[in-house]
Design a protein that fits this description.
The complex is a heterotrimer of chains A (about 260), B (about 325) and C (about 375). In chain A, the strands form three sheets. Chain A has a nine-stranded mixed β-sheet, with helices on both faces. Chain A has two domains: about 210 residues, HUPs (Rossmann fold); about 30 residues, no CATH class. In chain A, helix 3 crosses helix 4. In chain A, about 30% of the residues lie in helices and about 30% in strands. Chain A is an alpha/beta fold and about 260 residues long. Chain B has about 325 residues and is an alpha/beta fold. Chain B has two domains: about 170 residues, HUPs (Rossmann fold, 3-Layer(aba) Sandwich), CATH 3.40.50.620; about 120 residues, 3-Layer(aba) Sandwich (Rossmann fold), CATH 3.40.50.1220. In chain B, helix 3 packs across helix 4 and helix 5 packs parallel to helix 9. The termini of chain B are far apart. By secondary structure, chain C is an alpha+beta fold. In chain C, about 55% of the residues lie in helices and about 15% in strands. Chain C has a four-stranded mixed β-sheet. In chain C, a hairpin with a 2-residue loop joins strand 2 and strand 3. Classes of the chains: A alpha/beta (about 260), B alpha/beta (about 325), C alpha+beta (about 375). Chains A and B meet through helix 3, helix 4, strand 9, strand 10 and strand 11 of A and helix 3, helix 4, strand 5, strand 7 and strand 8 of B. The complex binds flavin-adenine dinucleotide (3 copies). The site of one flavin-adenine dinucleotide has 28 residues of chain B, from helix 6, helix 7, strand 15 and helix 9.
Chain lengths: ~260, ~325, ~375
């Protein structure tokens, strides 16, 4: 079975982000880029499914500028067999729908049996691309998946999705889209051999025209980015524990009206 | 045309809308010109639930009631809702951020070919243009976004918007439009319940207590749970505590856990790493208890106590008890 | 001149950093306190390919290069000096010589399991009377048919207790002095091979430093690495490479101490300002950062020369000397910047300070490095 994993490259979680001269974008100088953590769970799950089945192919796909190759290379180092880079300035202002359309076009060509995504990309935090992808493909979709198995003949996936108060388990006819929630697995580190082997694996560049896609204006556009309003300075409550606690409870009740 | 603000109803799966709907309806009512419509896909709606929606301010209720809607499957819901949306052409479609609504409206937006803004914390009308504000980059920045065409699809972060006040006696017409129900592709197998804690859901709670590595071990969370029972709070944790196996992952607050925005967040033995802050920095009031006066969490806390949580927590529980007994 | 790392080298560095941060850092203080060999993390390092970095894949290694080894060891040392010592010895004092001087049959038996991380190796040169004066070997191997009968005592052997294979230097012909030294691979469990003692140490306490004793230990002659009498050149060539590893360890320890010092200088206040605002603290930090960068560049240069197959003996000696001295100075200053807290175990810089000391001693003391460097400058005429 062929499994396709959609991965997004995002700024490292500890990065300080600054708004660039264009108020709609961040200043990317000095940023360390990583594979979005949930996408690592997706990659890991794809590799495990392949390993368990003893055959198959795992293809990593990412849309983004040239730097995205680094993210794809680390997926190859983890064990993905090859990678596709949707690399075209035409996608620079892509919103979730445009991203999903591009991915859907590749998926139609690749015809995988299963698509794995992260539950959300930790920079733009929409958590929308996978469901939109499923819609464009007409496939079923299970989000925030905590357990996944594929049956022997590759016809059905059983997935447990996390919902308020528990897990809901479904059988999805394949092909389908699943999104990985933390807890699905523990992603492996790439091995040194994997890192060296990644050099020899293919990363194919794909342009919008290769997919027969026309450039469309985004349906959702960013007007501007803003820094968070600063929080007013806080107060350290002095005195011994009983005194400080009494003052805290009083403040929460009378000043902050939070209780 | 195209004036109605739809509010996708999230319910407790027992026929009652969740409290967060007061926030969604409240915000929609503020923006709409008198057309705030509750759209409810459910297998069973209670009369009390319908009444509740009207009292919160829904001017019309569109009820899609069918056994096919439970359990939630995106392919079924989207087919039904899209048919109605194409017919009615609402101005906007709002839903709260919940496990199913967030997936549902994303898929719906794709079907309708319109933009989606997820996890919004504010809206404004700029002339005819609706502008949504949403946190990005782990809450380090806010993005103002707008839509190319209607309906504007958005999800709203719980506990952020001012809830509508219920006006007893207010009523709204209930419409039961007929729509074609697509066949389900996904087959339901089972539901596994979490062990009930008797405490509110983390993302919905108005008060959240969060225990970090300073809790020292899983056995010590009892003291937070005791306090939580007194004040009706949920208990969350930092990743350090989750990774140590002290709490299940669903209780993790932060960039790779849950994003919460309660009225009151109290962190105990949490250092305030940037990834943790990402999940709770929009809380209205932040309290930190940490023995290290240099802990970064004090930088964003409204109130702090520098001290040993094992002394502070029991004392605090005692004081809360006293206060609430009054 | 190009200073960029290749994409693969960067990824290996990132991997080592991440592993060190998440798996090693949290246990570093504890294993130091308990002087406990970290089996679990060392096993995982083996699985990742960190225990045979420069060995070709065919022999169980990762097939990378010396530069990548340096980058990886530095990252590991930033979190824990003991792990770095275990890793450095396994890579450069065991795998490298067995690969370089071994036959394919020997590589198959003695290298593959170690380079792939399934077993460990150690390097046993030092004896009670043979430290800096390493040619003064008393351990004796006498040929007896298809075997050598080995008798003697090795000390201060890193990984000595944990290793499945020991590279043992011994006299096969005492009359020939250092031309009469040979190298044998002795397998653990061979009758007459004992490990009676491990040392209690100042630093790198989680690495084991053992005494190895051979009592009429019969070692098959096919376990001899290289020709009879080639032992001393093998030892010297091995130590040239090993010094790059120790230099990397020293750079990592210094860098780890600096990282903590910078954080502390930002947080700790005295006289109403963070101590980093005091010029004398800034001065210390600037000196630390500069020396570390110098040491790192010397170390990477030595590794790059090695990778290119060019002579690197002097470059490695300079790197090891400068990096070790830097590590000692930087960790001392790091304790100073932390004031009284620096002297307390909870703050961990004292561990870096203790761990740094060994880098000035093993694989040739700083004095011996100076000898090597001076000999090269003076063209052999001392
Ligand atoms: C220069 C620039 C301009 C932009 N302009 C706009 C704009 O005008 N309007 C707007 O709405 N957004 C804009 N964006 C944001 C960007 O388009 C979003 O990243 C995109 O909408 C996906 O949403 P998300 O990142 O929240 O993904 P989510 O929906 O949170 O992602 C969930 C999962 O989908 C998959 N996925 C998401 N993105 C990708 C990808 N790129 N490649 C492969 N898999 C992916 C991953 O598996 C991921 O875990 C811009 C970004 C950039 C860099
Ligand atoms: C990709 C990525 C994603 C991440 N995502 C998340 C996330 O979603 N959520 C998250 O929380 N973290 C996340 N992290 C981890 C984050 O960086 C921190 O490591 C983590 O938040 C630390 O948890 P902590 O505050 O409980 O522990 P620590 O940082 O160890 O802090 C413990 C605190 O407890 C205090 N303390 C100890 N004993 C007591 C006592 N008796 N009384 C009072 N105080 C005491 C200490 O002074 C200290 O400040 C992520 C990291 C990465 C790299
Ligand atoms: C923790 C630890 C791990 C070790 N691991 C290993 C290992 O794995 N394998 C192994 O074989 N050995 C190992 N050693 C041994 C180490 O390499 C020796 O201790 C080192 O070479 C110094 O030898 P020595 O202790 O006999 O000191 P000596 O040689 O007695 O030196 C004492 C002092 O005299 C100085 N000195 C000696 N000769 C000269 C000279 N000619 N000119 C100027 N000064 C001189 C030295 O610099 C030193 O200051 C280890 C030692 C330790 C402590």
């Amino acid at each position: 079975m062929k499994i396709l994993v959609a991965v997004k490259q995002v700024p490292d979680t500890a990065t300080q982000v600054k708004i660039s001269a264009d108020p709609r974008a961040i200043d990317t100088t000095g940023i360390t880029w990583i594979v979005s953590p949930y996408d690592e769970f997706a990659v890991e799950e794809a590799l495990r499914i392949k390993e368990k089945r003893g055959q198959g192919e795992v293809v990593a796909v990412s849309l983004g500028p040239e730097r995205v190759k680094e993210a794809l290379r680390s997926c190859l180092a983890m064990g993905c067999d090859r990678a596709i880079h949707l690399n075209d300035p035409a996608w620079n202002g892509a919103d979730t729908l445009a991203t999903a359309k591009a991915l859907a076009a590749v998926i139609q060509r690749e015809a995988p049996g299963l698509v794995l995504c992260g539950r959300q990309a930790i920079d733009d935090d929409m958590g929308a691309v996978p469901a939109q992808l499923a819609e464009l493909l007409g496939w079923p979709c299970a989000s925030w998946v905590m357990e996944a198995t594929v049956d022997g003949d590759g016809k059905t996936a059983r997935a447990a999705r996390q919902v308020e108060g528990g897990l809901e388990v479904f059988d999805l006819p394949l092909p389908a889209v699943l999104t990985a929630q933390k807890g699905l697995n523990e992603p492996r580190y790439p091995t040194l051999k994997g890192i060296m082997g990644a050099k020899k694996k293919e990363i194919r560049d794909v342009k919008a025209t290769d997919l027969g896609l026309a450039v469309e204006p985004p349906q959702l556009s960013v007007v501007m980015l803003e820094a968070l309003p600063p929080r007013p300075p806080g107060r350290i409550l002095q005195g011994d524990v009983p005194t400080a606690v009494k003052e805290l409870v009083r403040s929460l009740r009378e000043d902050a009206k939070a209780i | 045309m195209a004036n109605a603000f739809w509010c996708i109803v999230e319910d407790d799966r027992q026929g009652t809308p969740k409290k967060v709907m007061a926030e969604v309806i409240g915000e929609a009512a503020r923006l709409s010109r008198g057309q705030t419509e509750a759209v409810w896909l459910t297998d069973k709606a209670s009369a009390a639930g319908l009444k509740q929606l009207a009292e919160w301010g829904a001017t019309k209720i569109r009820l899609l009631e069918s056994a096919a809607f439970a359990p939630y499957r995106s392919e079924v819901w989207v087919g039904a809702a899209a048919e109605l949306a194409v017919k009615e052409a609402p101005r906007a479609i709002f839903a709260p951020v919940t496990s199913r609504a967030r997936e549902f409206v994303a898929r719906l937006a794709a079907r309708l070919g319109v933009g989606l803004a997820a996890d919004c914390v504010a809206f404004a009308m700029d002339g005819e243009r609706l502008v949504a504000t949403r946190p990005v980059y782990a809450g380090k920045l806010l993005a103002k976004t707008t839509w190319a065409k209607t309906p504007s699809v958005a999800t709203l972060r719980p506990n952020v918007f001012r809830p509508a006040e219920a006006q007893p006696g207010r009523t709204a017409p209930v419409e039961r439009p007929s729509v074609t129900l697509p066949a389900a592709q996904m087959k339901f197998v089972e539901r596994r319940e979490e062990v009930a804690t008797g405490l509110p859901e983390l993302t919905e709670a108005e008060i959240v207590l969060s225990g970090g590595r300073g809790m020292k071990g899983p056995e010590n969370y009892v003291i937070l749970e005791d306090m939580a029972h007194v004040i009706g709070a949920a208990v969350g944790a930092s990743r350090a505590a989750v990774d140590a196996g002290w709490r299940p992952h669903r209780f993790q607050i932060g960039q790779t856990g849950r994003t919460i925005s309660p009225k009151l967040y109290m962190g105990f033995g949490v250092s305030g790493a940037i990834q943790h802050l990402a999940g709770m920095r929009t809380s209205k009031v932040i309290v930190a208890v940490n023995k290290d006066p240099e802990a970064p969490i004090f930088k964003i806390a409204d109130y702090g106590i520098v001290g040993d949580l094992f002394e502070v927590v029991p004392e605090l529980t005692k004081e809360f008890k006293k206060l609430l007994e009054k | 001149m190009k200073l960029d790392l290749s994409a693969e080298q960067q990824m290996i560095q990132a991997l080592a950093r991440e592993f060190a941060e998440t798996a090693i850092k949290p246990i570093a203080a504890e294993i130091d306190r308990e002087a406990r060999f970290p089996h679990e993390t060392v096993k995982r390092m083996g699985e990742l390919g960190l225990m045979g970095i420069a060995i070709p894949e065919r022999w169980g290694g990762s097939g990378v290069d010396a530069v990548a080894s340096v980058l990886a060891i530095e990252e590991i040392a930033k979190a824990c000096g003991s792990h770095a010592a275990i890793m450095s010895v396994n890579n450069s004092l065991y795998c490298d010589p067995v690969y370089k001087f071994g036959t394919d049959a020997q590589r198959e038996r003695f290298l593959k399991p170690v380079a792939s991380g399934h077993a460990h190796g150690c390097f046993a040169l030092t004896e009670p009377q043979a430290g800096s004066d390493a040619s003064n070997q008393h351990t004796l191997a006498v040929r007896d048919g298809a075997h050598y009968v080995l008798n003697g005592r090795k000390q201060f052997v890193t990984n000595g207790r944990e290793a499945s294979f020991a590279l043992v230097f011994c006299a096969t012909d005492r009359a020939k002095a250092h031309h009469g030294i040979s190298t044998l691979v002795v397998e653990k469990g061979t009758p007459g091979f004992l490990v009676p003692k491990t040392e209690d140490k100042l630093g790198i306490r989680a690495s084991d430093t053992a005494e190895l004793v051979f009592e009429d230990c019969r070692v098959p002659a096919e376990n001899r690495l290289g020709e009879e009498g080639m032992g001393f050149p093998i030892a010297l060539a091995t130590l040239d490479g090993g010094r790059i590893g120790i230099a990397a360890q020293a750079v990592g320890l210094a860098a780890g101490a600096l990282e903590r010092s910078v954080a502390y200088a930002r947080e700790r206040k005295s006289f109403g300002v963070p101590i980093g605002h005091h010029q004398m603290v800034q001065w210390m930090l600037a000196d630390m950062a500069t020396a570390i960068d110098g040491a790192r560049l010397l170390t990477l240069r030595a590794a790059a020369l090695k990778d290119e197959g060019r002579p690197y003996t002097t470059a490695a000696a300079m790197a090891k000397l400068f990096a070790a001295e830097t590590a000692m100075k930087v960790t001392t200053d790091a304790v100073q910047i932390h004031g009284g807290y620096g002297f307390i175990k909870e703050y961990e810089v004292e561990r870096y300070f203790r761990d740094a000391k060994i880098t000035q001693i093993y694989e040739g003391t700083s004095q011996i490095q100076k000898l090597v460097i001076a000999r090269d400058i003076l063209g052999g005429s001392r």
